[in-house]
């Protein structure tokens, strides 16, 4: 899981215009005079370029992994990550996107094209090629250590909507009835939360600086409701997802925008059938529909080139929450694995059933309405579904219990 300074160095020095420097016993990687990655003296923490307006939400989303910069660095686009908490893939995403923030758009675009150019395929209709003698020059293969740039946001990204000449085709939702599995006899990973549990969780989240800032900004930009048919709303959703650590790549001028076009195609299928309502009020038909919508959304491509990356389970769940905040209890990888052992559509359906049962239980305990409960808990800016998600985050993702 943990990465080392050797891995950081090997990755950074593959990025154009990068050079290494040693300043006061700290290894730093620069483009010109601008530092975009710096290691702590003990080489356990890495600072990196990151938009300062989004870092509070990033830290709040994964406080065991990310940390705010030192006070002297708070005026910069900067945040820190603990190297023991990330793997090689996350390192590539973080370092590459930090580098993209400090190089000209042309340099980043050329690097993207060089590392994402598709490999030529041998023709299949002609006579099989003769194997070349061993003395001939072997074919050039793209370096295996470089991958397409990834998803941390740039400082002032230019988002260009690619024309939808070949819209993504998503199968229409089926009308098959929900099959609810019989309850297991194994003890639950987490007990049903009480009102006191949710109040304790609210104290934890209210302690994170600016934890609701990006959510309130999304609501303001998409008032009265998020509409993925609008390009500005799709852009707002992308920025919100990235502020919570999803790290979906912002396209530059002239580049494809797979997230934008894919989301538009998905919404064309689901806009008329995606259920509404509140978590406690969902019936089995609505829960099943959300599960299918999640299954379609999770596979949307967000990159192009040799290695295509999909939206993924965490971002898909958060996107559904942004669309139906009162109804969706989102998850992250730790929550999904601990509770359900997987993150497919069937597991997400079970997750919503669990959230519905918990919401009904705490409403029965308090006698409050679903609209009033967040204020009583101490989290008036988010719905009950989000408070239950925060409860699971504290109990499972943070590997600790609320005080």
UniProtKB/TrEMBL annotation:
Looking up Gene3D superfamilies in the UniProt record yields: 3.90.1150.30
GO-annotated molecular function: DNA binding
Pfam families reported for this sequence = YjbR
Q: InterPro entries under this entry?
A: YjbR-like_sf, YjbR/MT2646/Rv2570-like
Keyword field: DNA-binding
Write down the superkingdom of origin. Bacteria
The name under which this protein is listed is: MmcQ/YjbR family DNA-binding protein
Q: Which organism is it from?
A: Streptomyces narbonensis
